[in-house]
Design goal:
There is one protein chain. The protein is mainly β. The protein is built from no helices and 19 strands. The chain has a 4-stranded antiparallel beta sheet, with no helix packed on it. The protein has a 4-stranded antiparallel beta sheet with strand order 12-13-17-16, with no helix packed on it. A hairpin with a 2-residue loop joins strand 16 and strand 17 (157-161).
Length: 187
């Protein structure tokens, strides 16, 4: 196993030096930099994430992608952080007194659609999509038809135009974190 201190640890079943065929616990310093371990690799804005690492006392900043998160240091080896509304898919970084630790893998901020208005309209209708984790949206769909014209207003809203050929269906938004689908259909 490799905890956040950068060393690798293991156990053998047999082979210790005293000849009793007992196992050995060993550690190997492979010069990997200490890192942040993520207990989960995806979540939505507002979700609390647990982050084990070493030397967390005095932490001054936690970031999800480029966005700063609220956090609480529980102990020197454990903190919790809230995925910020403007968090983006990417590495998680923790700035401590002596260094900045970076996660060993990406954290995916999942988009969420909570509502959209209006709920119906003709081709050309401007639809306001409201949710969380919408920064960096790469695609908006009305049913199976892609909206070629949309604007990401903020982490919580997108404005999109209904295109010719659109049919009644759910609204979908795709970001680097995944795809969110509305509960209701746009007519």
């Amino acid at each position: 196993m490799q905890p956040s201190n950068g060393r690798i640890y293991g156990v053998t079943e047999r082979g210790n030096a005293n000849g009793l065929n007992q196992g050995v616990l060993y550690g190997l310093d492979n010069a990997a930099p200490p890192s942040v371990l993520l207990t989960t690799v995806s979540g939505t804005a507002g979700q609390t994430v647990q982050i084990p690492a070493g030397g967390l006392t005095g932490t001054s900043k936690v970031k999800f992608g480029s966005a700063t998160a609220r956090f609480h240091v529980v102990s020197d080896t454990f903190l919790t952080a809230t995925v910020p509304n403007n968090g983006t898919t990417g590495l998680v970084s923790v700035t401590t007194r002596s260094r900045t630790l970076v996660s060993n893998r990406k954290f995916f901020v999942l988009p969420v659609i909570s509502s959209f208005t209006p709920t119906s309209g003709p081709v050309g209708t401007q639809v306001m999509i409201v949710g969380r984790g919408l920064l960096g949206a790469t695609q908006v769909k009305f049913g199976s038809v892609k909206a070629t014209s949309f604007t990401v207003n903020s982490a919580t809203s997108i404005t999109a135009s209904v295109l010719s050929g659109a049919v009644t269906g759910k609204v979908a938004v795709t970001t680097a974190g995944g795809t969110a689908m509305s509960q209701a259909a746009f007519t």
